[in-house]
Design brief:
This protein is mainly α and about 400 residues long. Helices cover about 75% and strands about 0% of the residues. It is globular and about 60 Å long.
Length: about 400
């Protein structure tokens, strides 16, 4: 039994992760949490690490990319930030989420942070004369916020199982509704398409695993309604933000050019990091669209950075996590099964969102690994509990 103070650093991390300008506090919380974990590792040993082989391959490809990096110093720093810190969070939550009380404590911190962030976003919208999202506001950019929601929503679904309150599902439903209202204000069309995909997976898995008892025809009707509504909101977001149409999107010309450049040297890249394209291939940048300074696709960015082996490594990593969560969704323990379902939604959402951009870095990558570690940590300790008893 751990005192709650041992969980406090990582709870603080979950609370502050989505807030802009909190890098120093994040690192302080991460360091304090690792000190606690080191003490637990000394007493109990290291936890089992799901997807360990895929993680080692991912890290190995990143380190190997230093040999051909155009800016080795930059790439080494990115490896530290995107792999080192991420794995610290992953291992930390695997270690500390040992029972329902631990999960409840972390989930409450995540919910509290999302509530404060959502209130900031709503307040800025109401107090502003503009109908557009404040990209430099207290709630962060619209792209970051919408990506944050795609990782948050599966965790909120799991909260319906782990929170002790009697009316927890009503609370969770209200929280999800609030964040969807904020998502409308953010005006990110990609969010709604990915959210529809998550909703379809959720409907299928919740019915298949016995969490909801509705007919297949009703599932299809609800799924179709979710897709249609999401498409309509995405179209409305395009019109509201004066975004270029789908056929005029600069990414449609950038992606083939980036793919061709990767195939020129398929086995090696130009060094780990999202800015590698800008550093190595300035001719691929667009003067008309200065925001397209990277490939706007996670896997193409990995190809530029580490070649085809890097693309395969990150694909295998996501596949390994997805397979593990899918297995957990079949568990007899209802909370473990829900952790598996929410993990599937987490991976699907993050991968799909990063097909048209690359937010798998810094705070949003830390959030992904923190939630994944929390879900897998609870499931792993629940599985070991009978053996310890």
């Amino acid at each position: 039994m751990k005192p709650r103070v041992c969980l406090l650093p990582f709870a603080v991390l979950l609370f502050i992760l989505p807030f802009p300008g909190t890098v120093a506090l994040r690192l302080l919380a991460l360091a304090a949490g690792l000190i606690v974990c080191a003490w637990i590792w000394h007493k109990q040993g290291l936890p089992q690490v799901p997807a360990k082989t895929a993680l080692l391959l991912w890290g190995g490809c990143a380190l190997f990319s230093l040999a051909t990096a155009i800016d080795p110093g930059y790439s080494l720093g990115e490896i530290k930030n995107e792999i080192g810190y991420a794995m610290a969070a992953y291992l930390g939550f695997l270690t500390l989420t040992q029972n329902r009380e631990d999960a409840n404590f972390f989930v409450k911190a995540l919910i509290l942070g999302s509530l404060v962030l959502g209130v900031f976003a709503l307040w800025e919208h109401v107090s502003s004369d503009s109908a557009y999202w404040n990209e430099r506001g207290l709630a962060g950019g619209s792209g970051s916020y919408s990506t944050y929601l795609l990782a948050l929503l599966p965790a909120l679904l799991w909260a319906g199982c782990v929170l002790p309150q009697k009316h927890r599902w009503s609370v969770v439903s209200g929280l999800i509704a609030l964040q969807l209202v904020v998502a409308v204000l953010a005006g990110q069309r990609a969010f709604w398409l990915v959210f529809a995909l998550q909703a379809l997976f959720a409907l299928y898995l919740l019915r298949a695993r016995g969490f909801i008892a509705i007919s297949a025809s009703r599932v299809r009707a609800i799924g179709a309604a979710a897709v249609i509504l999401s498409v309509l909101v995405a179209v409305a977001a395009t019109l509201k933000r004066d975004t270029v149409g789908w056929t005029q999107d600069p990414r449609l010309t950038t992606w083939p050019a980036v793919a061709a450049r990767i195939l020129e040297h398929p086995l090696v890249g130009k060094g780990f990091g999202r800015e590698t394209m800008k550093k190595a291939y300035p001719d691929l940048l667009s003067r008309k669209y200065p925001a397209v300074w990277h490939a706007h696709n996670l896997f193409l960015n990995y190809g530029i950075a580490m070649g085809v082996p890097g693309m395969i490594a990150i694909l295998l990593l996501f596949f390994a996590l997805l397979r593990k969560f899918w297995e957990l969704s079949r568990a007899d323990d209802r909370i473990v099964a829900m952790a598996g379902i929410c993990g599937v939604l987490l991976v699907v959402g993050v991968v799909a969102r990063n097909l048209t951009n690359d937010f798998f870095q810094r705070d949003l990558a830390l959030l992904f690994w923190s939630i994944a570690g929390m879900l897998l940590g609870y499931a792993g300790h629940a599985k070991d509990a009978p053996a310890r008893a």
